[in-house]
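Thread: "does anyone have the structure for this chain?"

Original post by V.I.:
We have the sequence but no experimental structure in hand. Need at least a predicted one for the grant figures.
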Amino acid sequence: MRPGKVSDSVLKRSVLKQIHTRRQEVLNGAGVGEDCAVFASADGFFTCVSEAAVAGKADMARVLIKCVNNLATAGARPIAALITLLLPEDAQEQQLKDLMAGAEESCSRLQMQIAGGHTAVSRHVDCPIACVTAHGIPDPDIEMGKPSAAKPGQDIVLTKWIALEGTAILTRKNEERLLKRYPAHLVEEAAVAAKSGVRAMHDASEGGILAALWEMAEGSGVGLKIDMRKIPIRQETVEVCELCEVNPYTLASGGCLILAADHGQTLVEQLAGEKIPATVIGQFTDSHDRLIYNGDEKRYLDKPAQDEIFRYI
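Reply from O.Q.:
Generated one for you, tokens below.
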């Protein structure tokens, strides 16, 4: 199989169709585009869990932020993380110390405690692999949401700009500057959206904006129509993608939040009041067609392709 997330058809056929056991305590479980599980205890206490993994460079900040963004889209705030680190036999102890120091620095910034995990050396891996499971609890002021709750007739609102995560990775020497200039953290904007009544949100990460739109529509059982010219993209991204010959619309876009809103322009104005740029890029429809318009040109949105970033990492 190809690097990156498995295809939509493989996910349904070989993963989701194998899951049969159900528990009433699991309120939200595995599904297309579902990045956060929600559990309820007998006394009505809710917890949310999200998981992400990274191999190679094992960027602890990025994998932790990915988990926290998933929690934010569900209306939860992070409290703890479990971290599993698998190291190759030629790894040095200093490398392990550096990974954990990076994890603690990020968790401190995100107000999370490292609550446990697993650390091992294996002859079966040839690079560091980090797996993070983040636990959160619902924000008492926000009703919980899910990406598969989009409804026909709702506007599709996109925050910030697409492909900045991938742009930062492609331009390693400018990565720190780009990530500082364009924060990848979604908690604030997810909170503004949730307080405005938005219940369907999705973090546009691996696979880029087109993959995230497909997942949101597929999980909700709705169609969509998108105006490609309205999708916000920075000039830096355009230039880097042209140089590297990659498609920015299928490039990692962590830090972008897709929202389904009854009144999209009103939400855009509310986000602007918090200095969060946002744009209405289309609508969800009652058709199963997923259409992209670019001026007079119309085409169908394809199933998610491999993220362009895997051509370089």
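V.I.: this helps a lot. The first helix runs from residue 8 to 15.
O.Q.: and The chain has nine helices and 13 strands.
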